[in-house]
Amino acid sequence: MNKILFFDVDGTLYNSEKKLPESAKNALLEARCNGYELAIATGRAPFMIESLLEELDINTYVTFNGQYVVYKGEVVYTNGIEKDELAKIIAFGEARNEPVVFLDDKRMIASVSDHMMVAESLDTLKYPYPELDSSYYMQNDVYQTLIFMEEKDEPLYCEMFPNVQFVRWHPYSCDILPKGGSKAVGIEKVLDKMGITLKDAIAFGDGINDIEMLQAVGTGVAMGNGHERVKAIAHHIADHVDADGLAKIMRKLAII
């Protein structure tokens, strides 16, 4: 057997209190003992999952929804929005008082200070308000940019900027991804390194940004707390993350 398990973080590994349940941790460690490789596939940045990687002894991860991929500690793929395109999006948002936050593998930088939508969105990740540098993306490689605007305004952005994707993760915020970018793309980069196919992978997720991943792999599992669109395309639906859903479904699938 040569299979790998990919886990989303928020709402999948982390419960509603942003903690890793003991049942989930034990299930992952047991899966490893049973011969499975463990990997993370998240919209978060690498620096935001350091403690989780350390706790689970994982060194393969797809971050920024596929834009920064590490296999066994080695960066194997990076991607991002072209600076010119990003500048147009930022200018459009600035005129509407809709700021951005830039992320690379080590830090998070905001374009404006003390913005309510930035503070509320990042607070759900238990993350403090970032440092300020509106031109950070010009001098640095940025692998993810967050745009802060309400859902009602998202169609406007989609119409204005058809060459990128806006993937919502909070009522006030979207990830800006290159067209065609996804966790599924990042997972393929890992599997290429391993010399195995998508059918050999099992993925677990709950959010809109997990849809491509769950559709691409051999077995896609949606958490019971997941978005209805995610559950609609999954091969299996687990119980709620707060009800030991991850451990239960891994047992049901005979992973453990």
Automatic annotation (TrEMBL):
Entry's transmembrane regions: none
UniProt superkingdom: Bacteria
Gene Ontology CC entries for this record: cytosol
InterPro entries per the UniProt record, alphabetical: Cof (IPR000150), HAD-like_sf (IPR036412), HAD-SF_hydro_IIB (IPR006379), HAD_sf (IPR023214)
PROSITE patterns assigned: COF_1, COF_2
GO molecular function: magnesium ion binding; phosphatase activity
Pfam families xref list: Hydrolase_3
Name by which UniProt lists this protein: Cof-type HAD-IIB family hydrolase
Organism: Lysinibacillus sphaericus (strain C3-41)
